[in-house]
Amino acid sequence: MTLAQIIHDLFFDYTLRTVALGSATLGIVSGSLGTFAVLRRQSLLGDAISHAALPGIVLAFMLTHSKAPLVLILGAAVAGWLGTLFIMSIVKNTRIKTDTAMGIVLSVFFGFGLMLLTFVQKMPDATQAGLDKFLFGQSSTLQEKDVITMAIIGLITLTTVMLFWKEFKLISFDPGFSHSLGMPVQRLEIVMTSLLVVAIVIGLQTVGVVLMSTMIVAPAAAARQWTDRLGLMIFFAGLFGAISGIIGAIISSVTARMPTGPTIVLTISALVLISMLFAPNRGLVWKKIRDSIYHRRLQLEAVLSDLYLLATQHENPQHPHEISTLMTMAMGHGGVKGSLRELDRKGWVKQVDGNRWAFTDEGWQEAQTRNIKARQQS
Amino acid sequence: MSSAQIEIQLIASVVAAACAIPGVFLILRRMALMSDAISHAILLGIVVAFFIVKDLASPILMVAAALTGILTVALVEVISKTKLVKEDAALGLVFPVLFSIGVILISRYAGNVHLDADSVLLGELAFAPFNRLEISGIDIGPKSLYVMGGILVINIVFITVFFKELKLATFDAGLATILGFMPVTLHYALMGLISLTAVGAFDAVGSILVVALMIAPPATAYLLTDSLARMLIYSGLLAIVSAIGGYWLAHGLDASIAGSMATMTGIVFLLVFLFTPSRGLIAIARRRHEQKFEFAMTSLLIHLAQHEKEPDAAWECNEAHLEAHFRWESEFADRIIRKAEKEGFITKIEDLLALTTEGRSDAQKAIVR
């Protein structure tokens, strides 16, 4: 399939367009809300909430006998929200730590949901078929009206974030300080977590319970590498989320038997890897390069100062010295030959008959001024 | 009870204890969610090993899956060591990737084999007794009972033998390193054991129940005791109780056994969370309530002691004034006064309150303290 064909399909093929739009919307919303979760070290809250939503979905169905997305989303949201309140209450009232509290809520709620689901499945009227698509996500069943629902809910969520911008920023970075300013920290935390719940439940149908947590963590983790500013980080996270949603949807549509959810997860994870390696400043590759430049500069300085030390022992500062002496003085740290060649290029030292090296006039001047400077500093 | 029912409960109990005992160390090391990560990531190991040996019953599948579990732990560590993301985020990044690769491999290449993500995640204990272990043609019981029984024994032996080392490495990793107990090696051994347990348990009960059994009973035990040894024992027992309770819940509702068992671990946790003496939610609430009254009464006694011989005593020690002074609701003030009267700290003459000797000495004590 050609690129032109793919782009054509992206706009005119109903299924692909719907899935891509849905995944992009999900990416923007979960990426933005996930930023706060990741900054507050609650990355795995997404995992807990998405699992905790299951009993809500089944109960909503049992009560209403409806499979309308809005009903199920509402049920999921209530259960996810209750789950987070449970986590907060356990952490606040016992010595159990957050990770354990999340694990309890995640597995018990999900198990309860599973119990309800199998209970419903064995009831005589088998209209419940398709409820379990929430487990693994079936984005191919997304319809245009689902996407519109998602977009509206997402817009409300993002607007709320804008309204509470200052407060959210402060409680993300310094909850103690915001408490001392008289902010209702706990209530704000509940608002923030509720928004996260919303972002998660609108994504369940697209990528499923297990993989939803990635849509919270990964865009934010990638965005974190590119910037130190909260606003930009949220923007990047939304952008990465959207890009991976669209790319994932395209890949799974052009490849046979390629489930959308996992494909999106792998796409966004690849983005995380690229960001961790190549983002300017924080990227590992740049860091490695920076380190090796520093390392070589240090070696060079060491050789220069060793040669200076030797030169001061002689009447004539330009007396040549054996390279082996310099190597001994470098105490096996290496890089002596390379450093000498580098100094030679600068015109500070010259090679005299084979393995002996001496200062040039310019080099001797340089070494002397450096030595004076170093003494002044100490 | 039919023999199949007994066997299911037996398997469930063994699985529950095998998961819950090492789970204690997970929650104490604040790595509870590692169980979630491992139990999902092992899917990839199973799938890859299946493609190599083409046999779902091969023990190589278990080995490969356990190795994937250790790989998960190592990857999380590598990523969080770059300091580019926090440890929780690293965990959240790693296991969905491994799980996704597993799901994609299944849906692309294993379409018509009995190997799907549902069965890995959800498990079905009801089928466990059908898979029998036969030695020279004699049926000696369900296979998973022997597998999990073996894993349970390994777990108990490992924890008993390395109890001291595990205890030290869990509560003071720094000291353990200095004393040469090799906490890193121990850590990986423990993680390997957890992976092995998760692998053994998943095909009987599914990965979600593995998580529930590894976290909820140890957390419940954590609320009940301060001793590590007791915590391990309680954890195992609570898990067995939840397993059997869960089985009968499932039996009653005709629902998933794994789901019901997970629900039961939650119910047991909730009961303990609410009702434990001294640490339970209700005990805490009652204590706070009592403290409120006690504090109010002490305030009253001190107030009376300050004013009793002063010229303004007639006003300050008047019951009507207290409501304004302490900003108490009149009903609350009434209760405090009645309580103080009943305990013999004050006497009330018309609306005027006066300290008894006992009340005065109590107020003095409170001021000094």
Please give a structural write-up.
The complex is a heterodimer of chains A (378) and B (369). Chain A has 378 residues and is mainly alpha-helical. In chain A, 77% of the residues lie in helices and 3% in strands. Chain A has a 3-stranded antiparallel sheet with strand order 1-3-2. In chain A, helix 15 (284-311) crosses helix 17. Chain B starts with a helix and ends with a helix. The longest helix of chain B is centred in the C-terminal third of the chain and has 27 residues, at 281-307. By secondary structure, chain B is mostly helical. In chain B, helix 3 runs antiparallel to helix 4 (87-109) and helix 13 (281-307) crosses helix 17.
What's the SSE blueprint?
The complex is a heterodimer of chains A (378) and B (369).
Chain A: H1 3-12, H2 14-39, H3 45-64, H4 69-93, H5 98-121, H6 133-136, H7 144-163, H8 165-173, H9 175-180, H10 185-201, H11 204-207, H12 209-226, H13 230-254, H14 260-278, H15 284-311, E1 321-322, H16 323-329, H17 336-346, E2 349-352, E3 356-359, H18 361-377
Antiparallel strand pairs in A: 1-3, 2-3
Helix pairs in contact in A: 1-2, 2-7, 2-10, 2-12, 2-13, 3-4, 3-5, 3-10, 3-12, 4-5, 4-10, 7-10, 12-13, 12-14, 13-14, 15-17
Chain B: H1 3-28, H2 34-53, H3 59-81, H4 87-109, H5 117-122, E1 132-135, E2 138-142, H6 143-161, H7 163-171, H8 173-178, H9 183-205, H10 207-224, H11 228-253, H12 257-275, H13 281-307, H14 313-316, H15 319-326, H16 330-342, E3 346-349, E4 352-355, H17 357-368
Antiparallel strand pairs in B: 1-2, 3-4
Helix pairs in contact in B: 1-6, 1-9, 1-10, 1-11, 2-3, 2-4, 2-9, 2-10, 3-4, 3-9, 6-9, 9-10, 10-11, 10-12, 11-12, 13-16, 13-17
